[in-house]
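[job 0417] fold request received: Clp protease N-terminal domain-containing protein
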Amino acid sequence: MFERFTKDARAVVTGAVEHCERAGGERVDEAHLLLALLDREGSRAAFALASLGLTERRDAVERDLAEARRRGGLSRADADALAGLGIDLTEIVFRVEKTHGEGALAPGRKGGVRRSGRRPFSRGAKDLLTQSLRTAVAHGDRHIGDEHMLLALTARPGVPAEVLADHGVTHAAVERLLWGGGEAKAG
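[job 0417] inference complete; emitting structure tokens
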């Protein structure tokens, strides 16, 4: 499938691996792909993110992703569901971090030295790339661009989509901006 990726989409995948390595993660996940999308300039996804004001709020996005990672990768919807069962996720995080240190619940961190130089992709990241292909095909495109990755990311449940939506980047907004709705199309 990687041969169907545009230069910009390949740069996002490579950037996601770099974000994972810098964070000491074991697996590349959807949050790493989001951060790599935010790194892009001059691409269709970069146009959409800038037009929707997200590039100006990158620090807030990174803080929101880091906070979710501290919660073990659980979204606010997950935390609300647990609260409905009488489970206070904030209290659990506090107690675990008090005993094991800050970030102890962060997914994908083993703390050891990797023997292989390659970082595998999480199931969610693989599914996102597959959804990017479906999105490209649905728009009549033969190649997967970073705009298809962004659109797929906004359509998937989970922390990255929740963070994007909190900052005004929704599936509908990206779709309208890039493919119609009477607004200028990105070129």
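[job 0417] notes: Confidence is low (pLDDT under 50) at residues 111-115, 182-187. The first helix runs from residue 7 to 23.
[job 0417] exit 0
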